[in-house]
Design brief:
The chain has 1469 residues and is of the alpha+beta class. 30% of the residues lie in helices and 24% in strands. Helix 35 crosses helix 36.
Length: 1469
């Protein structure tokens, strides 16, 4: 239960106090009325004794009476004796609860029962319990909530008034009058006569039998005579003399002179006297008055209980909850008619506090001084100690003596006699009260009642031990007689007496209380007594920390006969649950809901609202969505009824925004109620737009697009794809575009990227970098895509949907920004004024429907016209419940639907990404900025559109196709600096004006629409290649960025230009995504936007065409012959061409029409193919082999200038394609740009090697020198035509394939080899010294080239001369660029198996060892002589040739042995 101000002992003691009646003369009443008080009211604040009293029990033991309080009431006579509360009393209790409300805004208390409080003490709660961690936060929220109060003063006020309003009962004497104060004024003519009249009146009331009420404790009631003296009027001496006479007549212990009204009127203004009466005056008013008009009570009451008893009064101001008992307590009651809310609109909007009924307006005790207060306090003490307590003590002794004398020696014998003979008791059978309800009725003189009377007297003077003994005895007697009402009363008081005994000699018998409650409720049908019993027992159990038992007891006492009682007890049960050692939070919340429901039925709307709000602290965000909906719905209704529309709107908003699990019908009712409440709220505030909860906006999914949406294709024109809101964002793609843009910016800024460079972002979303304000352009639209979600199962209709913005013109500093300078469109949207189209044009979507649980995107547009800072704040729209197809039956219904349209706004608040850089960021949750909705509007910029004509979607690998691209300037500003970058720069070219020859073009190229520049050149057998020298600078650019050649490099507003564009199919088959990024600038410099870009992505499907493999080997002819006679030396180039097309593109056959070469050092000289065919035709899977001779290029005249490339064309058909011009040359340089790095590095190494000292030369340089010997650096271009049948038409496609021959003896191919998976290498933790580099013999053998020149046949007459000497010339060629030492050893006899087969009996004569020095590229001839002894076939290739670089040591020296044999035939003449 909730905390109480009093202790349990004080509460129980104050529940049962001695009752004292008051009878006043009219004059005495007039004297007290000067203070706006009756005499009983005058005494009430002073009725608690501050000092201890003493009595002696029957055993003559002194008993101390502490903190005693007496109750003084006027005598109110009544003819009937009610056992329950009258309707007026019930209204009074309702008023008490209604007038006691928690203060709004006051500091809340926290539960501190036992060790437990809601801020959690870990000593009382085990942290390991599973509920602890889950509910700790919830409990903290409940305890700190503004709706939560640990004390419940309304319950205490109800309980106090309930106990004081208890009707007197026959079965107990606790609330019977013990004494009567007879009050007479000293101004009476004969005061003694007045005392006699009052005494006779008291005797008549008690003993005449005409009145059942009031009830008197004992026949000889104590009469105490009080003489009231008004100090402001009467004669004090006369009063004293009358008092002396009274003492003589009644004894000094039976009378008192009370002097009052000492305060004069003049002293009122100077002295402030406290008013202790006000807090008591609203209590017990019903007992102080003879009659209370029901009509006045109904007027003063703001609400009455919604009781089902027909005898009770119904009020017109009941809550709108269903009155039938069959409705479930948690059933959601909704309005039946759409859009109307009768319970809310018909209910009273403000509850009135109950006016005090006890006195008239004005202050109390105005004629009393502090001394008078003291006199009253002294009077009460004198009366109690000298009159009341001795009277009680005397009666206890008398009753004890009677009982002892009547019982005799044996109680059991007395009981037996009583059973047999009746024991002087005459049980009466009441016709109106059958035996089954209350059992027997005892006469007043029955001994059982005398025991009960003695027990009550002992209890009132705190002699609890004797009281318990008497109650216990009486209980047995009552139970044996089946007098259940008497037995229940004895059980109840026995339990209370046992609890109040000092030192607690016996435990509290809770089962006594349970039996008493059950008997009162079920047998006697007396809910008032049962409720009193439950209130006492619950407090006692709570004090013993038995919260579970207390809660069970309170819940049992709830019933349908009183909603107010049930509500209060359920609330206290909820407090019990949360005060338990392990708080049961969910039970607390559930019972608070039940209490709120009963409060609502009782008309206590403020208390109902408080209970629901308190329970909401537990249920919210816990997944109990249906419970949350019920609570929020009730909070909304109650708040609206109590004129708290803002709270009502908040509660209804929660129902709609949460993911509700209600049915569609229920949600529709929620929505209508919400709109109705909302309409009434915003009707009062027309100046600003309120926030709407529906539909839900996913703010982080908001996307912003700057610029016009792209135009689709127009006829054959294909527009650039650029960026649109229909495209999904891809982080990898964005970084690729950013890298391309960086290349373009660097190209435009002389190779340097500016420090403030940021990639252009046309479309902003949650994944882009939104830290900076984006830059938008005036007169270009801004499209904001907002994601709306309808969480309900009913459709929503939005209308007049538009963006809400504020705008600050350029030139306003941030410090000067205020509400006046920031222009907004909120006013125009709110009041329907004309739009501010001169600043920003706002597009309005007239209708926007959202289906049930649908997520839908709305694209809202703004068109800025002025320069400055634009802030997109949110969206504005009209919200209505979409009609489900039913038409309104009448015009009135149509108006109701129209009323349900509300206008409001929702702000777009986007949370930036979480910061995670610094330590502070990681320790707390911080979010960065997201400025995507705050664009800066800049001056107009150029805007370009790009269209492509005849652009293919499928190509063969290496196929050349010509297309056209059109550039249009659609803005009002000229553009310049047009460039393009691509992920595949080798895919396209715009051509080069400098390399296009001015030769006539053959008519066939025009017929076939050839992309090449061709010359009609009939092929002649043995013809030599045509050569053209071209500089690489004419084609390739240093980076992948291409300048687009438009006239004047400027495109004026409205102008457009068209350029040819050559494409070449990728070398690898498959689908290729090729991205273009076009770059352009404004001719006006100094803008915030330095440049603009336009994206285009295209997908090309590449099919297989030809596979070209090439290899080269050295010709065996000596170099000097090749220089003189170009037909007999150089290098042989073998080209192997295979058709690998699978005919999927309808390709019938390929023709190889030309082979060209391009190199700085070599060239193709002539075709030496044995077959003299016109050209090569290859059908599917066929292969052809071509053989060419390559020779070194002629030395170029200018050595220091940039070396030029020699293009050599060998056409196999009737026309020659000029390979050095566009597009053939362009694609060659684009395809080979990556391979150009190696030839640039090699000369540097050579120079380094030659400049080194002879002592130390690194082995890497030797490798470079040796490698240089084998370098060929010859690029082959194979040009083909393909004949394709498509739609019964024959098309001719053409293309080119590139093969880069880098090294002699090493095969090269046009197809890029597939990367093989790298084998796993063992991980080594310790670095090992690299082994010394030993060049293999195969490489060193290439340093020196050897040739033996000799006659193939030699005839010698061996008969004449036995020795045949043949001259042989050995030619040594130094192939390297370094000085080489050569040693020739002729003594070697070959041991190889090939040379053994040949007859080898010959010898070299003359000098058998030669040591020579060869300069770079030097050719040296050495004459040798071979001596033969007999005819035969001999292998002359036996000399061992050793070569080494001059700068190297012996380890590089190796044999220069040619593998092929040199055979000579010696004939005998």
């Amino acid at each position: 239960m909730a905390q109480c101000v009093q202790s349990v002992q004080e509460f129980v003691q104050d529940s049962f106090v001695p009752m004292v009646a008051v009878l006043c003369s009219e004059e005495a009443e007039r004297v007290t009325r000067k203070n706006n008080l009756s005499f009983a009211e005058l005494l009430r604040p002073f009725c608690r004794l501050t000092s201890e009293g003493h009595i002696r029990d029957p055993n003559n033991q002194v008993q101390v009476v502490k903190n005693l309080r007496i109750c003084v009431n006027n005598v109110v006579t009544n003819l009937n004796s009610p056992s329950t509360f009258s309707p007026a009393q019930r209204r009074m209790l309702n008023e008490v609860v209604l007038s006691c409300q928690p203060q709004e805004g006051a500091a809340t208390n926290v539960i501190t029962a036992g060790d437990y409080d809601l801020n959690f003490s870990d000593h009382s709660l085990k942290a390991s319990l599973p509920w602890y961690s889950a509910w700790r936060e919830t409990l903290s929220e409940v305890s700190t909530s503004q709706h939560y109060t640990a004390t419940t003063p309304w319950f205490e006020a109800y309980r106090e008034n309930f106990l004081q309003s208890m009707p007197a009962s026959e079965h107990e004497f606790l609330n019977h009058f013990l004494a009567c104060l007879l009050v007479v004024s000293s101004t009476e003519a004969v005061p003694v006569e007045q005392f006699l009249k009052l005494s006779q009146e008291q005797h008549r009331v008690q003993h005449s039998g005409d009145y059942t009420n009031p009830k008197w404790f004992i026949p000889n009631t104590l009469k105490y005579y009080v003489l009231l003296h008004d100090m402001s009027e009467g004669d004090e001496q006369r009063a004293d003399s009358v008092y002396e006479d009274m003492k003589q007549r009644y004894g000094h212990q039976g009378c008192y002179l009370l002097k009052m009204n000492s305060r004069t009127i003049s002293a009122e203004e100077d002295e402030q006297i406290p008013d202790p009466w006000s807090q008591y005056l609203h209590r017990n008013n019903l007992q102080n008055q003879d009659v209370l008009e029901d009509g006045a009570a109904a007027v003063n009451s703001a609400a009455v209980e919604n009781n089902m008893n027909a005898a009770e009064v119904d009020s017109p101001e009941k809550d709108g909850a269903p009155s039938g008992l069959e409705s479930h307590p948690l059933q959601l009651d909704t309005a039946s008619s759409p859009g109307s809310l009768p319970p809310l609109s018909a209910a009273n909007t403000e509850l009135k506090k109950a006016a005090p009924e006890g006195g008239a307006a004005g202050s109390h005790g105005t004629c009393l001084t502090l001394n008078d207060h003291g006199h009253i306090r002294q009077f009460i003490q004198e009366f109690t100690f000298r009159g009341l307590l001795p009277h009680i003590e005397k009666n206890i002794r008398q009753l004890n003596d009677q009982l002892v004398s009547r019982k005799g020696l044996s109680r059991s014998l007395f009981t037996a006699t009583k059973k047999w003979f009746g024991g002087g008791k005459a049980p009466e059978k009441s016709i109106s009260e059958p035996k089954s309800t209350c059992g027997l009725l005892y006469p007043p003189e029955a001994p059982e009642l005398q025991i009960r009377k003695m027990a009550d007297l002992c209890f009132l003077v705190q002699h609890y031990e004797l009281a318990y003994s008497c109650y216990h005895t009486a209980k047995k007697d009552f139970l044996s007689d089946q007098a259940m009402l008497y037995a229940a009363g004895a059980l109840e008081m026995a339990a209370v007496s046992a609890f109040l005994q000092a030192g607690a000699p016996r435990p509290y018998p809770a089962h006594y209380m349970d039996t008493a409650i059950q008997t009162y409720r079920d047998v006697c049908k007396n809910m008032v007594l049962a409720e009193r019993c439950a209130l006492l027992s619950a407090e006692i159990l709570k004090s013993q920390v038995k919260y579970s038992e207390a809660a069970t007891l309170l819940i049992k006492m709830t019933s349908e006969d009183s909603d107010l009682r049930s509500a209060l007890l359920l609330e206290q049960a909820a407090h019990c649950f949360i005060n338990m050692r392990n708080p049961m939070v969910r039970k607390f919340a559930f019972h608070m809901i039940l209490a709120g429901h009963r409060f609502s039925k009782a008309g206590q709307r403020r208390h109902a609202l408080r209970c629901y709000c308190q329970a909401m602290q537990v249920y919210k965000e816990r997944g109990w969505s249906l419970a949350e909906d019920h609570i929020n719905f009730t909070i909304g209704r109650q708040s609206f009824t109590l004129s708290q529309p803002e709270n009502a709107v908040t509660a209804f908003r929660q129902i709609l925004t949460n993911d509700s699990r209600q049915t569609a019908t229920q949600q529709g009712a929620f929505l209508r109620e919400y709109l109705y409440v909302y309409k009434s709220v915003i009707g009062e505030k027309e100046d600003s737009l309120p926030q709407l909860p529906l539909p839900c906006i996913h703010s982080s999914a908001t996307r912003v697009y700057f610029g016009h949406e792209r135009r689709l294709a127009e006829g054959e024109k294909q527009a650039a794809t650029h960026v649109s809101l229909d495209q999904e964002y891809d982080q990898d793609q964005a970084s690729m575009w950013g890298h391309l843009e960086e290349q373009l910016v660097a190209s435009a800024n002389r190779g340097v990227v500016p420090g403030n460079f940021q990639p252009s972002q046309c479309c902003l979303n949650s994944q882009t970098d939104n830290l900076r304000c984006p830059l938008a352009v005036a007169e270009e639209p801004i499209v904001v895509e907002v994601s709306f979600r309808n969480p309900l199962k009913v459709p929503l209709a939005l209308s007049n949907l538009s963006l809400l913005w504020s705008f600050t013109a350029e030139g306003t500093s941030p410090s000067q920004e205020n509400a006046e300078e920031a222009i907004t469109n909120e006013e125009t949207l709110t009041q329907g004024m004309k739009q501010k189209d001169d600043i920003v044009t706002t597009e309005i979507i007239l209708e926007f429907h959202l289906g049930p649980e649908e997520t839908k995107l709305a694209r809202l547009r703004l068109l800025p016209h002025s320069i400055g800072q634009l802030n997109i704040v949110g969206v504005v729209y009209n919200l209505a419940a979409a009609s489900s197809g039913e038409t309104a039956p009448s015009t009135e219904g149509q108006q109701t639907l129209d009323l349900m349209v509300v206008r409001g706004r929702q702000d777009l608040k986007i949370q930036g990404p979480r910061l995670n850089q610094t330590k502070e960021d990681k320790m707390v949750i911080r979010h960065g900025l997201d400025r995507r909705l705050d664009p800066i509007i800049t001056p107009p910029m150029p805007l370009m559109e790009v269209f492509f004509l005849q652009f293919p979607t499928a190509l063969l690998c290496g196929e050349i196709r010509k297309a056209y691209v059109e550039f249009c300037n659609v803005s009002g500003v000229a553009l310049s600096g047009l460039r393009v970058a691509s992920t595949h720069p080798d895919f396209f070219t715009f051509g080069s004006q400098t390399t296009t020859p001015l030769t006539p073009v053959s008519p066939t190229s025009a017929e076939n629409c050839s992309a090449y520049k061709t010359l009609a050149t009939p092929r002649q057998p043995g013809s030599v290649a045509t050569e053209v020298l071209v500089s690489a600078g004419d084609f390739s650019q240093p980076s992948g960025v291409m300048d687009i050649p438009i006239e004047g490099n400027t495109l004026q507003p409205g102008e457009s230009t068209q350029l040819p564009l050559w494409l070449r199919g990728p070398d690898q088959e498959g689908v290729h995504e090729i991205n273009f990024l076009f770059y352009y600038e404004s001719t006006e410099k100094g803008n915030k936007i330095s440049h603009r870009v336009l994206r285009h992505s295209v997908f090309i499907c590449a099919s297989r065409s030809l596979s070209v493999k090439a290899s080269a080997c050295r010709s065996s002819g000596p170099p000097h012959h090749s220089l003189e006679d170009q037909g007999s030396g150089g290098t042989l180039v073998f080209i192997d061409v295979e058709n690998i097309n699978t005919s999927e593109a309808g390709v019938r056959e390929f023709h190889i029409i030309q082979v060209s070469s391009s190199s700085q050092h070599w060239r193709l000289h002539k075709c030496i193919n044995p077959a003299k065919d016109k050209d090569c035709k290859l059908t599917s899977r066929e292969r052809a082999k071509l053989c060419f001779r390559a020779t070194p290029c002629k030395p170029q005249a200018t050595s220091n200038a940039v070396q030029k490339y020699t293009f050599a064309d060998l056409n196999l058909g009737n026309e020659r394609i000029i390979s050095s011009s566009t597009p053939c040359g362009d694609f060659f340089f684009r395809g080979c740009r990556s391979a150009e790095v190696q030839p640039v590095e090699a000369p540097t190494s050579r120079t380094t090697a030659s400049s080194r000292s002879q002592v130390c030369v690194p082995t890497e340089d030797i490798g470079n020198i040796v490698k240089k010997c084998n370098e060929l650096d010859l690029n082959i271009i194979v040009i083909w035509k393909a004949y394709v049948v498509e739609d019964n038409k024959q098309l001719i496609l053409e293309g080119q394939l590139h093969v880069a021959l880098q090294t002699i003896g090493k095969e090269a191919t046009s197809l890029t080899p597939k990367e093989e998976t790298q084998e796993m290498v063992l991980l080594k933790f310790k670095s090992e010294a690299p082994p010394p580099v030993i060049l293999p013999a195969a490489e060193l053998s290439q340093l020196i080239k050897t040739n033996l020149h000799y006659p193939e046949t030699y005839t010698h007459p061996f008969v004449q001369d036995s020795l045949c000497v043949v001259p042989v010339t050995l030619t040594l060629s130094n192939c390297s660029q370094a000085r080489v030492e050569v040693i020739i050893d002729l003594r070697h006899k070959s041991a190889s198996p090939e040379s053994v087969e040949v007859h080898s009996s010959f010898t070299w004569v003359g000098q058998t060892q030669h040591h020579l020095q060869l300069r770079p590229q030097e050719v040296l001839c050495l004459t040798l002589r071979a001596c033969f002894l007999q005819p035969g076939v001999y292998n002359l290739n036996t000399p061992r040739v050793f070569a080494k670089l001059t700068d190297q040591g012996a380890m590089c020296e190796t044999s220069q042995q040619t593998a092929s044999p040199a055979l000579i035939i010696i004939n005998s003449a």
